[in-house]
Amino acid sequence: MELHLLNRSSKTDSSFSVTHNSYPHFLKVWHYHPEYELVFLEKSTGTRFIGDSIQKFKPGEVILLGKNLPHMWLNDDIYFMKEKDKSAEAIAVHFKEDFLGGDFYQSPEFAHIGKLLKRASRGIRFPISKRQNIHEEFMSLFVKDPFLKVMSLLRLLNKLAKQRNYELLSSAGYLNAMENQGNERLDKVYAYVFDNFKKEVSANEVSDLIGMNPSAFSRFFKRTNRKPFSQYLNEIRVGYACKLLLENENTITQVVYESGFNNVSNFNRQFRKIKQMSPSEYIKFHKEGI
């Protein structure tokens, strides 16, 4: 899965952009950009890839992405069928960290928003309840008055910064990997893993891919990612397994092999290690809301 740099800068005289996207399906491109991205999902379902996080998405969720964090919203297969009358809709806001000035978030009044943006380096999902009227707040961003538009964005960021219920998406170790974007060898490794994690992948074949011996590759990968290659691979597989577990047609045994694990016991062990709960507990937690 090749990583692309996209231009998300404002094409108007505004310091940030707000768009209402409505397509048969979302852009099927693994990409990143220097702007922060704030998204409200209005319609459609599928799989959300953010850093090394792989999860199902559904309408009503709010996502805040930090600068240069790779991501992709991949709609379910039904959205790519021409005979199906489906649409994918979202409101997306893109802004640079310094769009209000370099020291803006250092002031006491806005320091909490600065902390929110730091957390966004891993990607944040906010489970919004219906009573919060978050959609109306996103719609207020389309006001024509530029001053009111900025105030609407600050009011929205203020609300999200005060939310106690949120989920950090990609792993902490992934942040260090992001610092190496543009490193041709690492880009090849990440792309290869995303394309092949469902089958057997060895450190030897990956090291051959980038012209390093296995020992040197092991040291190189651990130094740049702060985790062994095997752990990184298992985290990708468990992330994909989480997505499969929430699809009703899959049994846990099917998920084990579809996500790249070769036996149930190893899957259960790695899943608990990464998610701090068993696969069945994960299903119950997300489907019953406990």
From TrEMBL:
<feature type="domain" description="HTH araC/xylS-type">
    <location>
        <begin position="187"/>
        <end position="285"/>
    </location>
</feature>
<dbReference type="InterPro" id="IPR011051">
    <property type="entry name" value="RmlC_Cupin_sf"/>
</dbReference>
<dbReference type="Pfam" id="PF12833">
    <property type="entry name" value="HTH_18"/>
</dbReference>
<dbReference type="GO" id="GO:0043565">
    <property type="term" value="F:sequence-specific DNA binding"/>
</dbReference>
<protein>
    <submittedName>
        <fullName>AraC-type DNA-binding protein</fullName>
    </submittedName>
</protein>
<dbReference type="GO" id="GO:0003700">
    <property type="term" value="F:DNA-binding transcription factor activity"/>
</dbReference>
<keyword id="KW-0804">Transcription</keyword>
<dbReference type="InterPro" id="IPR018060">
    <property type="entry name" value="HTH_AraC"/>
</dbReference>
<dbReference type="InterPro" id="IPR009057">
    <property type="entry name" value="Homeodomain-like_sf"/>
</dbReference>
<keyword id="KW-0238">DNA-binding</keyword>
<keyword id="KW-0805">Transcription regulation</keyword>
<dbReference type="InterPro" id="IPR014710">
    <property type="entry name" value="RmlC-like_jellyroll"/>
</dbReference>
